[in-house]
Specification:
Elements (H helix, E strand, L loop, with lengths): L1 E6 L4 H4 L2 E2 L9 H13 L7 E4 L3 H11 L5 E2 L14 E2 H4 L3 H8 L13 H18 L3 E5 L1 H11 L4 H6 L7 E6 L5 E7 L1
Parallel strand pairs: 1-6, 3-4, 3-6
Antiparallel strand pairs: 1-7, 2-5, 7-8
Helix pairs in contact: 2-3, 6-7
């Protein structure tokens, strides 16, 4: 089985370097243009099944890359919700004691006020991907950078720095190959 994980295209949140995940924001015009350019130059993998997180930016990305191919929305594949820090930059938050504690503490267990912790998202994403893997069919998921790195960490353990270094650029991702027993054996970048 091959599972293709593609990060949504560029958003205003990416451009402005904001903390966002729960905010259901669309692609930026630059993001749409880059995805169209990529689609013309790259052959994105196909699958038998297709999924998105259901958020606007993943739906828009999917439509650009895969047209009107039928797909299923899986809300469990949504990005981390930064709660009270949503749509704010480091500059906006740098003097917030809770934010500083999060940055300098155990980011895997701490969470933004009213938001998710790394562990909460890791667990949610693991539960959401399980039925897709159980089908054992080649699949494509258009999701979020944080979701992709959490899945890679689950299947190919790495320390936190290596985990974040695997974050794909918008419109890019990885293809994970699973053996006949459903065990992940390798991953390669796409495109």
């Amino acid at each position: 089985m091959k599972l293709t994980l593609i990060r949504h295209g560029l958003t205003e949140g990416n451009i402005r370097r904001l903390y966002y995940g729960g905010a259901d924001i669309p692609l930026a015009p630059e993001g749409e243009a880059e995805l169209r350019r990529l689609r013309e130059t790259v052959e994105y993998p196909r699958g038998r099944d297709y999924y998105t997180s259901g958020m606007v930016r993943t739906e828009q990305t999917f439509a650009i890359l895969y047209d009107d191919t039928p797909h299923t929305q899986v809300p469990g594949l949504r990005e981390m919700n930064f709660g009270a820090w949503e749509m704010k930059s480091y500059e906006d938050l740098k003097d917030d004691p809770a934010f500083q504690a999060w940055c300098t503490g155990d980011v895997e267990q701490h969470r933004a006020p009213e938001g998710d912790s790394f562990q909460m998202v890791y667990d949610r994403v693991g539960e959401a991907i399980a039925p897709i893997l159980e089908r054992g069919r080649d699949a494509v998921c258009v999701v979020h950078g944080g979701v992709i790195v959490m899945l890679l960490r689950r299947w190919f353990p790495a320390d936190l720095a290596q985990t974040y270094a695997r974050t794909p650029e918008p419109g890019h991702g990885y293809q994970v190959v699973f053996d006949d027993d459903g065990k992940p054996v390798s991953f390669t970048p796409i495109p």
